[in-house]
Amino acid sequence: MSKPAKDVKFIIYQVLYIFVIVVLTIKGADLDLTTVLASDKAVPKTYSDSLKAYIDSLESLGLVPRVEFDAVRNLDYKMQPIVDIRGMVRLGDGQVIVNKSDIRTETPIETTEKPIQDKQIELKIVQPTQYTNNTIKNSNSEPLQIYADNSLIQTIPANSSGAYQLKGQSAVKFVCGNSSKSVETLPNQTQKLTFQSFGAGSSEASLRSLQAVVGWRVTVDDDFIDQIDVKITGSVKSKQVSKGIYDIQLALCSSKDQFEKMFDNKEAPYSVSFNVVTTDKISGKTVSQQRAFTFGGW
């Protein structure tokens, strides 16, 4: 027998061998070869196609030997080892066995977002004072919020100046964008009164001479003098010479007759007093003092 004929015969045996292996895998070893199915009970073509796909899948996984014969190169055929496929899951319609090496698992690309760095805003804050109007300039591109003891009291628009009033709050927090700064408040000192005598008189002084000159100078001392209200009462006239400074002049009688009627049955020396009352418009604190002019006659 020629070599090509032997090759063909070998291929036929090999195909039959594969078929037997597949049938044993599917049906098991308990076969009844005496039963012959009628043509109407033969396996439909769809099942045979499924069987072919199953065999191809087993072959791709290396579970059945693959026939690789090269007649031209006259290479000896080498059987691939048969893998025990008992216990394999039977495939249904449309199911195919695939090599693990053919399955590509895509590793999800982890995208790490760079954290957005907060823009730090420079806050130039002057320590605020209680019971007054504090001014501030917001040179930033975002509004400036002002909290006093955790309560919002004012908002200064971007690139603007403004004022905020404090009462007795102990701390103020400034918030602009992602930046914030907290500072303690300064106490507001109570106003003070100072009196300077220029011609307050004596027991021998005349009323006419006292009324002709400034008798007292009153100075109101306060860090926020504009919010101090000053009231001077009595038989005097006052003149404000500068902020917080007042000159006091006696203005009691315009004539001797008026003097005699006023002081009839009274013994010299005579005394006339006046009052100075200062009130803080925001804190409500009040400071008052009294001074007097003294004279012995008209």
Describe the protein.
By secondary structure, the protein is of the alpha+beta class. It folds into 3 domains: 3-31 and 38-99, no CATH class; 132-184; 192-295, Cadherins (Immunoglobulin-like), CATH 2.60.40. It is built from 4 helices and 13 strands. It has helices at residues 3-27, 45-60, 207-211, 256-262; strands at residues 132-138, 144-148, 151-156, 160-166, 171-176, 179-184, 192-197, 216-221, 228-234, 236-242, 245-250, 270-280, 286-295. A 4-stranded antiparallel β-sheet has the order 3-2-5-6, with no helix packed on it. The protein has a 4-stranded antiparallel β-sheet with strand order 7-8-11-10, with no helix packed on it. The protein has a 3-stranded antiparallel β-sheet with strand order 9-12-13, with no helix packed on it. A hairpin with a 2-residue loop joins strand 10 (236-242) and strand 11 (245-250). The longest helix has 25 residues, at 3-27. The termini are far apart. Residues 71-77 and 82-87 have low confidence and may be disordered.
